[in-house]
Amino acid sequence: MSQRLDSRIALVTGASSGIGEATAIALAEAGAKVAIAARRKDRLDELAKKLAKLGADPLVLPADLLDENEAQRIVGDTEAHYGRLDILVNNAGVMYLEPVADADLGRWRRMLELNVLSMIASTQAALRGMRARREGDIVNIASTAGRIANPNAAAYSATKFGVVAFSEALRREVYRDHIRVSVVEPGVVATELRDHIGDAAVKDALNAWADGMRQLQAVDVAEAIRFCVTRPAHVCINEVLMRPTDQDR
Ligand SMILES: NC(=O)c1ccc[n+]([C@@H]2O[C@H](COP(=O)([O-])OP(=O)(O)OC[C@H]3O[C@@H](n4cnc5c(N)ncnc54)[C@H](OP(=O)(O)O)[C@@H]3O)[C@@H](O)[C@H]2O)c1
Q: What is the pTM of this model?
């Protein structure tokens, strides 16, 4: 049976668009107070207005999470503001797709650092309080690219396989502390994620493939995230693998 999140404190990274924005709203609708982090403060401020109307007492945390100190700082700021953090959604991410032979290693380094190291840093910071209180939810956003590796996605898949592996190892380290770890692995979602692909040919091919299907919407993934954190305390949803009905691989 679904639990309400009244009086629960959530932090959603990458909340300025797409899945993170929809997740902040979904958690607020379930009663949580919600802190939101990303670089685009104007987008966070717009979202905060919606969250305030839902009674979510939003906390806007502008941050460039490429810096692991910032990834830890937003956890500390959330705890300082609300007194604790119950639900951490590590959602911020980028997808830079290109063939290995031509890859811009600086860009790939930034993707590895944001998608993996930043998630690790914010998780590490959240564990201290969660362990002390012997409860908490950590939800990490991976991808079908964390289950199947495709050409042009070698490094993106490396980050998302990494998110899956990290999440399972973490779960086994913290389950005795009653901390739940979930990983959500969506297929194609209609968001801004593909806009940042630098290789035009790869981008056009991926957009053509995605346009040929009824894509997941951000709210579909947000509902899966909300499902994970609204289970009774004895139920841990370890993984949610979800694709558009029309997606093959
Ligand atoms: N869309 C899909 O098909 C799909 C499928 C599977 C998994 N995912 C995963 O879902 C997650 C969310 O992506 P999305 O699809 O919702 O795309 P999106 O709309 O582009 O959202 C990405 C979010 O990450 C934030 N972000 C990017 N760089 C950042 C940085 N340096 N510091 C702080 N925040 C940063 C962005 O905010 P700012 O630019 O304002 O900083 C934005 O809020 C990602 O982890 C992605 O890999 C997406």
A: 0.98
